[in-house]
Amino acid sequence: MFDGTIYKRCACTEPVLDEQGQPAATRAGRPKVRDLGADCPKLDKRDHGTWFYYLNLGFKPDGTRNRPRKGGFATQTKAKEAAQKIWDLAQAGVDVTSDETCGEYLTRWLENKPSLKRSTDHSYDDYVQRLFIPSFGALKLRDLTARPIEDMFKAIRAENIIREQNQLDAERAREAERHAHQVWRNATAPRDPQLRITWNEAKATAKEALAKPRRPTGPGTQVRIKAALSSALETARKQHLIKENWAALVELPRYKKPKPLLWTKGRVEAWRKTGKKPSPVMVWTTAQTGAFLDSVIYDRLYPLWHLTAFMGLRRGESCALSWSEVDLDEGVIHITEQIVAVSYEPYEDTPKADSIRDIALDQDTLDLLRWWKKVQDTEREDLLAQGKKWIDSGRVFTKEDGSEYHPQFFSDRFERLYKKISLPPVRLHDLRHGSATIALRAGVHIKVVQQRLGHSSIKVTGDTYTAVSEDVEREAAETTLAAVPRARRKILPGAGSDILDRYLKTMMHVPERESDGPLPYEVRQALSIPSDIITDEGAQLFIHGGSYAGWWSVGIQLEAHGKVFGEIRTERDPKPDAAVDAAQRWVQEYCTANSLTLHDFENLNRFLPSQVAPYEVLARCTISSAPSLEQEECMPETATIDPVSPAA
Fold it and tell me: What count of Cα atoms within 13 Å lies in the side-chain half-sphere of residue 445?
C-alpha cells in the first residue's frame, strides 16, 4: 500500500472578507476570491469535484520533501489506482517526478549514441522523427505503456495497404501511358490531335500516381523499427526512467527472413507467364550465371562482375576495394572497408567485424585482375597524354578518369546488362548469393563459403543457403538424367539391392574403345536451327551433353534451359573430348548441307568442375549465313571470345 493521501476537491471559490467583514478587493479594484478546495460544502455530492492524490516519497537531493501529486480523477478508486502505480514505479527506482516526454527522451538518447554507424544513425533518426514522435512523442516517458507502441505498428500495417494499392495504381497508370504512347506512335500521318491529348493525360496521371508513397514498410523493416525502439527504452529502463521496456513486450506478426531460391526451369517459365518472382531473394543457376558472364565479357566492368559472381563481394566492398588491399603475388584480396550511401551520399565505412576478411583468389581471377590493372594504367597514360587530369583514387574499379563509382551505379548497370539477354531478375546482391551456389555445387565446404562471404557464423550461411543447396542438388540430378534419352527412367520395382549393385557396377565400368578413329554417333533428333536466329554476324550456340555408362547424349541450344534444336547419341567411350569431336562433325555436316558456315567451334570441357567433368561435355560455336574463308578470301577475321566458365 502506498504512503500518501487520497482526497477530493473542486474549483469552487468564495469572496475574501476584510477585517470589517466586507468583501476585499485587489489593487485593480476586483473582488478577492479564494479556492474552497477540500472545504467546499458541496463535495458530499457524488458528481461534484474530482479526486486527487499525493504521495510521501521521502526527500529530494536538495533536502525538500518529495511529494508528487496529481488530480482530475473521476472516482476515488481511479485516484487510488493511479497513486499505487506511481508508488510502485518509485519503489522500483523510477524517477516519477520527471516530466520528460517520450519525444524529448528519444531525441536525447539518439544524440548520446555517438558509436552508431552513419547508416544506422540515419535509420534511427528517421524512425524517431517519422514514427515515434508523431505516435507517442507528447506522452510523458513515465506514462508510456505498450499500447501506444502497438497502435503505431497497427497504423504502419494500415498504411501498407494504402501503399500497396498505390503501387498497383502506378503500374496500371504507367501501362496506360505506354499504351497511349504506342497508339500515338503507330498512327499514320497526319496524326489525330486527340491521340496526343490522350497520351499527355495518361502521362499526367502516371506522374501523379508515381508521386504517391508506394513502398510498404515490410516485415523485416518493422522488426528493425521495434529493435531500435527497444534499444532506446532498454537504456531508459537501466536509467530508472521507466519500469519496463515496453517495446520488448510488443508482438509483431511472425516474420521469417526470406531465403534465396534458385531460378529453376519451372520457376523461370512461371515468371515469364506471370511476371511474379517466387521469392524476394532469387539466385541464378550456375548455367544462368555463366550465360550472364559470357554476355558481358566485353563490358568494361567485366572484372567486377567476375569477382562478385565467384568471390561473393558485396557491392560496397567492390566499390571500396583498393589496389593496396590486393596482393597479386600472394593471390589474396583483403576486405577492410566499404562504401555506403545514405540519402544517395556515399561515404567510406568499415564493415562489420566478421566481414573484415581475406579472400584467396584462383589463377583465372588473378590473371583477370592483372589484365585489368594494365587496362587502368593504359587509361591513365592516355588521359595524361591528352593533357587531361587523372584522379588517383587508388580504387580497383574506377571510371575512365580514375574517379570512384557510386555504389548504385553498379546495381543499375547490372540490371541493364542482364535484361539484354532476358535472364530472370535478380539483384546485384543476389549475384553474391549465387557465388555460394557455385561454391556449394563445386563441393566447397560450407565453412569455407562462410569465411569467403564474411558471415558471422556457419549457422547464418547454413540457414541462408539450405534451400539453395537443395535446389542445386535437385537441378544437377535432373539435368544429368535428362541429358540421356531413355524409354524407361525408373528401375523396375522388386529388384533386390544386390541385383542393383551388380547392375550399377557393370554399367559404370566403361572400357576403352578399340578403334582410335572418330567416335560414331546416331542422330536421335534431326538438327534444325531456326533461320531467324542466324544472321551474317552469326548466332552463338552451346553444345551440352551428358554420359550414362559411356554413351554420350549431346544436344545444341541457344541458351541454358532453352529449346534443343537437335540431339545425337554416340557409341560408348570414356573420353568427353571424343563426344565433343562427334558433335562438331555433326554440326559441320548440318552447316554444309544448309549453306551455313561454322565459326570458332570451341571445346569448353576444361572449364567444367572436376567432379562433373567425366560425365558432362560443353562446347560453344558460332553459325552464320556468311561465306567461309574458303569461299571468300577477304572475309574479315572473326574475333575469338575468351571463354569464361559458368561453373569455374
Answer: 4
Residues of the chain with CATH 1.10.443.10: 262-479
277, 285 Cβ separation under 8 angstroms: no
Among the residue ranges 70-84, 231-245, 346-360, the one predicted with the least confidence is 346-360
Predicted model pTM: 0.56
Q: Which residue has the cell 556515399?
A: 346
Alpha carbon 430 to its chain centroid, in Å, reads 7
Angle at 42 between CA 39 and CA 45, to 5 degrees: 130
Give every CB contact of residue 631 below 8 A, 6+ residues apart in sequence: 597
As a whole number of angstroms, the distance between CA 537 and CA 102 comes to 69
Beta-strand pair 282-283/326-327: unpaired
C-alpha cell at 257: 527472413
Nearest-5° angle of CA 157, CA 163, CA 169? 150
262-479: CATH class? mainly alpha
Exposure letters 45-80 (e unless 16+ CB within 10 A, then b) = eeeebebbbebebeeeeeeeeeebeeeebeeeeebb
pLDDT value at residue 275: 84
Dihedral in degrees, nearest 10, Cα atoms 164, 169, 171, 175: 170
pLDDT one-digit tens code per residue, 488-506: 333 333 333 343 333 334 3
Whether the pLDDT of residue 628 is over 60: the answer is no
482 grid coordinates: 535428362
* Other CB atoms within 10 Å distance of the CB of residue 153: 19
